[in-house]
Amino acid sequence: MDMDLRKALYERRAVREYADRAVDHQVIDRLIAAAAGPWCIEDCALAAQNLMLAACGEGLGSCWIGFAQAYLNTPAGKALLRLPPACVPVAPLIVGFGKGPVQSVPRNKPDVTWLG
Question: Considering the entire predicted model, what is its pTM?
Fold first, then answer.
């Protein structure tokens, strides 16, 4: 997982098509370690980004599955994942080997307002 952070920030893309190939459990453990912490809900987005950057460093694709969040917070969604009722899923992610390269998208120049 030796990848330059700047390279990962600029090259990581949302991958929406995956190859039918399992990711090694040791790799998954490394990804989880990159995101582990005593997070509050707001920090979960940061942990998810850490995990997605770590996945990029491992040569894996990832995508935040935003539409799944509402479902996973229902009793049926929690039952599907065997989550306790008090658990609040915050950042549903998919990680795996992409079927192929993902095209870059043009980036807008940031609009920065300096204070002070």
Answer: 0.77
